[in-house]
Design a protein that fits this description.
This protein has three helices and no strands. With 104 residues, the chain is mainly α. It has a domain of 49 residues.
Amino acid sequence: MKIILKMEDENGVNQTQAHNLLGLKTPVPQRRNDTALTKTLRSCCVIPQRYILGVMGLLGVCNAYTMRVCLNLAITQMVNRTKSSTEHFDPDACPSDDIVVCNF
C-alpha cells in the first residue's frame, strides 16, 4: 500500500495532518521574535481578543434586533386607522361562515 502526500498549503497543514495520522513527528516551526511595538500592544490590552469579539458580536445582534423592532413600529404607525360612518362591503371578498354556499 502506497500513501502519497500532497502539499497543497504553504503552511504544510495537509502534511502535518498526514504525519499525525501516520504517527510521524513533524518539526515545530519556530516563533518569530516580538518587536517592541508588539510587546507594548500586548501589555496594554488586558482583555483577550476573543472576549472583545464576542461582545462586538453581541452588540451587532442587538443592533439588528433593534432595527427590526423599529421598522415594525414605523410600518404599524403609518397605517391610516380612520373609520368611515358607512359600512364597507366588497362583493368580491370571501363570504362569511354564516352564509352557506352550495354548488349543485
